[in-house]
Amino acid sequence: MKPLKLEMQAFGPYAGIEVIDFTQLQNRTMFVISGKTGAGKTSIFDGISFAIYGKASGEDRNGADLRSHFAKDDLPTEVSLEFQLRDKIYYIWRAPQQEKRKSRGDGYTIVNAKAEMYIVDGTGSRKLLAANVRETDEKIREIIQLDANQFRQILMIPQGDFRKLLTSDSKEKEIILQRLFHTQQYKKIEEKLKEKAGFLKGEVENGIDQRSRKLREIFTNGNDELEAALAEQTPSDTIILPMLEAITVEMKQTLVEIEKNIKIKQKDRDEAKRKVDEAESILNEMKSRDDLAKQKANLDEKKSLIEDKRKAVDLARRAANLEHQENICQRLKKDIDDLLGKKNKVEKELAFISKEITSAMEILKREEENKSKRESFHAEMTRLESLREEVLSFSKRKADLQRLEQEADNYRKLLEKGKLKAAEWVEAIEKHQSDLNGLRQLQDQNVVLMEENLRLAQMIDLLDQLTGSIVDRKSAKDRLDQQDKALNLAKARAQDASETLKHIEEKWYKGQAAILASKLAAGSPCPVCGSSEHPLPAHTVVGHISEEDLEAAKKDAQLIDEQLADVRQTWMIAKADVDLCEKTVFEKLEAVKKFLPDAQLDNASHLLVELQDKKAETSNQLRNNTNQTNKIPELDAKLTKLTRSLKDLNREMEETAEKERVTANEYAETKAAVQSFTHNLPEGVENIEQFDKRVTFLRVKIQQFDEALNKAQQACNRLNEQQAAQRMTLDNLKQDVEKVQNSLNVEREKFLSQLHQEGFAAYTEYAESKRDALWIQAAEEEIKAYGEEYRSINDRLKDYETRLKGVDRPDIEKLDEAFKEQENSLLAMNGQFSSLMMNIKKNEDVQSTVLSLNHQIKAIEKQYELIGHLADITRGQNTYKLTFERFVLASFLDDILTAANGRLLKMTSGRYQLLRKKERSKGNVQSGLELLVFDQYTGQERHVKTLSGGESFKAALSLALGLSDVVQEHAGGVSLETMFIDEGFGTLDPESLDQAIEALMEIQSSGRLVGIISHVPELKERIDARLEVLAGQSGSSTEFVFLS
To answer: With CB atoms counted within 10 Å of each terminal CB, which end of the chain scores lower, N or C?
Structure first.
């Protein structure tokens, strides 16, 4: 990532818009940022970091704290950065959450954080990549592949943070190196192996569970030994399977015996079934014989009914011969009834029409009498039409009169309002002028307050650093006190272990002497001194010490000595931290005393609170004053506007007064004309609307009279025509009735003659004998069916009586009971056979499944043996407690240290060299990526935390440069084209400073951009590009200065 242009607005000490164009550096790859304390040097790094991540470069500053106190309330805080990354140019813009003055009323409102990101093409056009904070953060993580903390440790090393990457633990370094070298694939290999091993282990356990469940399905056939084996928590297949085979053989032998018994029982059952079937057949025939006898008796009872129905059918057929003639008579009778009904209807309609004619004649007479009214209305309408033009002229003049009266009244009201408004504006102009004078006095006061506020901010920053250093020193001393106690305890334990070992060794030697003494013989030489005389041989001591006891004591003493060395190393680190903190505290105190000579360590916190309160009071007063003075342009504009408006108002009032005079004259003239017209118009007609209304009324009345007369005449004509037509219809109907009545009389005589011929004495007898054709057909079929059924039942009854003659009724219950007994016995045998057969099959299935599962389990166990072993090794269960990914990261770190040590040896004149700690850490702490330093002066390794401030800076700088080299060589996804360093060079002596500058100069050939914030004069002289930060009363500004 290489910055091209940084733009900050109302950010930190930059009140307005500050643009830093890094392209001005051209081919220069190193520059110094210089300026006074508090001018805003670190704010440049804050601006770059905030633009990319929405966070400042230091952990003690956040987005909301970065707003400039010099900025105007209506100017929002914004930062934008244009940067190049892997040959692509990006533009990012951010605004933090901040307060904004309300557009209406007093007070402030909160505006949420915003962000946008674009890619810039060759023409300078921007294409949107992200439109909000969340999308922008995700895009930054995607293209830069470092979070804010990693960025601060690798690319931008803030003030006081240059030791973090150097002294960070293995876990923190692992996260950074993962991002830089993309080693997530190795982590995935670990996880895949672990997942595969877990899966295989689960498959083995699942197979064993399946086998156990399958074994428990075995039918034991009452075998106690097998049941006991199956009752185990995990049944053993090697024990159970042989027992299962033996039981299966026994069950198959039993199955053969049962099958023989079933065949014998089936024969007995079949014979019993035959006897039952024979008895049931006889009983069925006897039942059929009895049923037929009952049916024959029922048919005998119905004989008389069938004979009556046969007679009724004969009468119905004779009555059917008369039906045609009867229908003719009935049709003629209906025709006569219809004609009489029509005749009555016509007579009623004639009577109604006569009444309607009388009423219509009366209406016609009344309408003819209205003729005089119609003529009167027509004469009035003619007269009104002649006056239309005069009415139109009168209406226009009257409307003009009303308009002129309204206009004159409006002009008078405008003049009254203008006078009131002019008085108000004169008063407002005087008040605004007074307020403006007061605000200009506050402007002068603000200059003094800003200078005081800047001075207080510098002192607070120094005191804040001092109090933080005091707290760090106390924490370091507390840790040193704890380490003192731990060291004393370790020393005491080491002393006790040493004395214990010495005591055990003495007892062991004495024991060895006693053993030798026990083997000495008088006159034989001593194997130790060679003497043949033994005046004082050693005696056996109580509590014999073995060689194993002695070795155990030595190992314990050695372990305690090693622990003492570890504690002493930790104590040295804590002691170095205390010394460093002491030095830092007194350096910070001296810096504070330049501003506050009375400052001491015991009153630093008190002074800090006092200054913070004083600064808050000054800032509050400054903010209040600024809020007031910001109103000056607005007040000035209002005053100018009011003065101009008052002048315009006076001119408008003069014009309005002239218009009012002209309008009043026109009104008087028009009023006189209206009064003259009023005498010529008819009463009740004063305007064209009233005139048109009266003419319309007259026209409608005349039309109504005409329509009513025509309607009455038409009604009389229509009714007379209807009366004549109905009289003609009535005459025709009377003739038709007489003609049809004659025909009916003739046909009735014919019907009576045929009635006597068919043998009916009277019409009633004929009517009772009438039946429809369907009834006759059904009755004849019923008579026929009865005869056929009677013959069939009688013949079958005689057949059954012949066959059953001399046959006794069988005992079916006894025979059926004998059959069921045989059937149940056979069912029991079949059930026993099926159950045994099923259990044999079940056991054979269990045996087959278990053998198949054993084969599968064995194959999976073979895979798990290899995969599980690999998974354990890659997860760190090895001698060095290193995971696969950390092993790869350690290799990358070794490459980084090789590159770093080339520079560190130069900067330390060959004294120091960085090493990776390869020994395991205590307990389960992750290790393998922590750093040690090898000191050529002492020939010993020690932790990097024991380095002094200047030594730490050189080591951290070498590590950062080495890291950059290795990452660039591997061409990974992370681009390290830029490095920013904030302070740290002030801790170096002149020789070390020269060495550090030379190391930085060497990397210029790689094209990387290095920016350094420093007050060291030598840096400014050696580096030809300088970004000057200039502080002022209204905020800071920047400019590039080039020496050549």
So the answer is: C
Beta-bridge partner residues of 80? 7, 93
- d(CA 85, CA 712) in angstroms, rounded, equals 106
Are the C-beta atoms of residues 310 and 783 closer than 8 Å to each other?
A: yes
Angle, in degrees to the nearest 10, between helices 388-519 and 688-757: 80
pLDDT tens-digit series, residues 657-687? 888 788 888 778 777 777 766 665 666 666 6
In the numeric block, the tokens 């049941």 are attached to 227
Q: Please, what's the b/e burial string for 508-545 (b: 16 or more CB within 10 A of its CB; e: otherwise)?
A: bebbebeeeeeebeeeeeeeeeeeeebeeebeeeeeeb
Give the whole-angstrom CA distance, residue 980 versus residue 484. 39
Same domain, 484 and 623: yes
473 closest CA partner among 585, 607, 599, 589: 585
> How does the average pLDDT of the chain come out, rounded?
81
Give me the half-sphere count of Cα atoms (radius 13 Å) on the Cβ side of residue 822.
20
Contacts of 226 (CB under 8 A, 6+ apart): 218, 220, 240, 243, 244, 247
Q: Are residues 150 and 226 in the same domain?
A: no
Using the structure block, give the residue that is written with the tokens 């949420």: 112
- Tens-place pLDDT, residues 292-315: 888 888 888 888 888 888 888 888
Q: pLDDT-derived band of residue 533, with 50, 70 and 90 as boundaries?
A: low
Q: Is the pLDDT of residue 89 over 90?
A: yes
Instruction: Judge whether residue 328 has pLDDT over 50.
Output: yes
d(CA 268, CA 818): 10
The reply to whether 600 and 488 lie within a common domain is yes
Phi, psi of 565 (to 5 degrees): -65, -40
| Distance from C-alpha of 1022 to C-alpha of 718, rounded to nearest angstrom | 132
Identify the residue whose tokens are 């991002």.
179
Whether residue 230 is found in the same domain as residue 128: no
Residue 971 confidence (pLDDT): 46
Alpha-carbon distances of 764 from 141, 755, 760, 767, 769, rounded to whole Å: 117, 11, 9, 5, 9
Domain boundary among the residues 799, 827, 847 is at 847
Which of 613, 630, 647 is the C-terminal boundary of a domain?
630
How many CA atoms within 13 Å lie on the side-chain side of 995?
21
When pLDDT is averaged across residues 486-498 and rounded to a whole number, the result is 86
What are the tens digits of pLDDT across the range 564-577? 888 887 888 888 88
Residue 922: pLDDT above 70?
no
Q: Are 1024 and 982 in contact (CB under 8 A)?
A: no
DSSP assignment string, 196-216: HHHHHHHHHHHHHHHHHHHHT
Domain count of the chain?
A: 3
Close Cβ partners of 365 (under 8 Å, ≥ 6 residues apart): none
**Secondary structure (3-state) at 415:** helix
- Residue 686 is assigned to a structural domain of this protein: no
How many C-beta atoms lie closer than 10 Å to residue 765's C-beta?
A: 13
d(CA 692, CA 699): 11
Supply the range of the domain harboring residue 460: 449-630
Residue 173 inside a domain? The answer is no
Is residue 919 situated within a structural domain? Answer: no
**700 CB-near residues (< 8 Å, 6+ apart):** none
Which amino acid is located at 202 in the chain?
G
Buried b (16+ CB within 10 A) or exposed e, 281-308: eeeeeeeebeebeeeeeeeeeeeeeeee
Residue 929 burial (C-beta neighbours within 10 Å; 0-12, 13-18, 19+):
buried
CATH code of the domain in which 79 resides = 3.40.50.300
- Angstrom distance (rounded) from CA 649 to CA 429: 14
Would you mind telling me the total number of residues written for the chain in this entry? 1044
Residues 20 and 117 in one domain: yes
Give the burial string for 895-917 (b: 16+ CB within 10 Å, else e): bbbebbbebbbbbbeeebbbebb
CB under 8 Å, gap of 24 or more: what pairs does 114-119 form?
115/54, 116/92, 117/90, 117/91, 117/92, 117/93, 118/90, 118/91, 118/92, 119/88, 119/89, 119/90, 119/91
Query: Is 581 contained in some domain?
Result: yes
